[in-house]
Amino acid sequence: MSSLLLTISRERNGFARRVSEDIERLDRLALATLQVNVGKLCNQTCAHCHVGAGPHRREIMTPETAGRVLAWLAETSIPTMDITGGAPELCPSFRHLAASARAMGRHVMVRHNLTVTFEPGQEDLPEFFREQGVELVCSLPCYLEENVDAQRGEGAFVKSIAALKRLNAEGFGLPGGLPLHLVYNPVGEHLPPPQDTLEADYRRELGARYGVAFNSLFTLANMPITRFASHLKRSGKMANYMGLLRGAYNPTTLPGLMCRHLISVGWEGTLYDCDFNQMLGLALANGRPLKLWDLSPEDLLGREILTGEHCYGCTAGAGSSCGGSLV
Known about the structure:
By secondary structure, this protein is α/β, with parallel strands linked by helices. It has 13 helices and eight strands. Helix 3 (63-74) packs parallel to helix 4 (94-103). The model is unreliable at 1-8 (pLDDT under 50).
């Protein structure tokens, strides 16, 4: 990333100035995770989706790019590959990516929307996940049917519960079994409630009503970008929501921000500091956007992270990351 780009970012970026009051600068502390976004194709069109994914999107990782990502990973000691989308399972290279990373001995996380199991050709996904021993992070924005369907489309909740039961039957989410976590994000323009409290509610309601088990609940704030940003602008709520995020800024979240411990690679192989920056086109650059294979892990350590006003979404309240609350 060019120094000019970072200078411009600081001058125009209130978040960067706010962070500079608490720490010298926001940079990458470690590289524990390679997060791979394989594209924007999805079987759903969720109202909150920061990717803007949907059934008609055509951005998708090619087998050639997937091969280059795997070749790069093989030359590193990065322990975890985190595969996301869209619905990553709809990418033709998804199973090759997951199985190859597992064959290297890497931990593989899959961002799974549950309902994709019912798409043609995906019926055996629970068995594939079990055979590969992956960790599943499954989006379920509420334990109430009406709230889930309002955000994800009619029938999404019923399919999600059916998928969770299948995954439980394969040993996911059970004591001593394979890890299955759920993800909550607010239906409206507010911050998530305390993660521990909401997890207890999910566990009680899903267990009593449907006999569904899971390991942990992750709470995420809705990011004011792409599809959710369009909703905020249409409803005249963007200023209020940004005011909420800025007012809830919490400097104790800074050490644990996901961008400080991972690198994000897009469907074309372009490098980003996080998946949110990826959706805004804020790529790592050096006169041109950099590809994953242009840099080594060592080149990425200590590198200053490109930020924007959307970063208040990760630092508000208890914080928000791919692994839920930060504090």
